[in-house]
Amino acid sequence: MSVWYEITVKGSEDALRGFVAACEAQVSSSEAALYGHDIGLDARHFLQRLQGWFGAGSQHLLFAPRMLAQEIIAALRARGREAGLRLERVHEIVRATMPFSAEAFSLDIAEKIKHELLLNLPPGVERLNLEESEERDPGARGAELYTPEHGYVYRVAGSFSGPLPGVVEMQRRARDLPFVKVKSLDVQKRRVETPRLA
After folding, report:
1. Domains delineated in the chain
2. Phi and psi (nearest 5°) for 197?
3. For the chain, which terminus, N or C, has the lower number of CB atoms within 10 Å?
4. Which of 54 and 168 is assigned the larger pLDDT?
5. DSSP alpha helices (H): ranges in 28-186?
């Protein structure tokens, strides 16, 4: 699995997206770049972007696998100024983590949640602190959300942790399911000057 990098760039988002699209066309990779605000980063990353908004131009967080990151960084250093873009920082992603929870009142929905979130995890992704429970009350009224008593209640909570693309995939799966709440994604990283060659 490819190592991913967080690249902080100052400038116009439209210019950055065009710039990155041109870099993606130069690199033969099945993995495309991800933009920070598209993947729901935690508040610390958002505060970093806010600081950039009050300076000259906005700061944007971009995530890319090693070969694409190398291409983007080299292009920004060579031609970024012409596009009004400035490379600020580069960090290697060590791990991404995303907490989630769910509460469902239907056995069918619970089975769907289990299938999508607890089975067939992407490579390298693991579940942390998983808490899961099921309650059945044959005397309760039904599965409606506002029923005071439910005949069935399924609860699950925990976190997904691992390589950024895999955790983003779990975020997508969770957002597509009813009754699942996803918290902000947290990225652990270390600062580097230039991504290392494979």
Report:
1. 4-94 (3.30.70), 96-188 (3.30.70)
2. -70, 150
3. C
4. 168
5. 43-53, 66-79, 107-118, 164-175
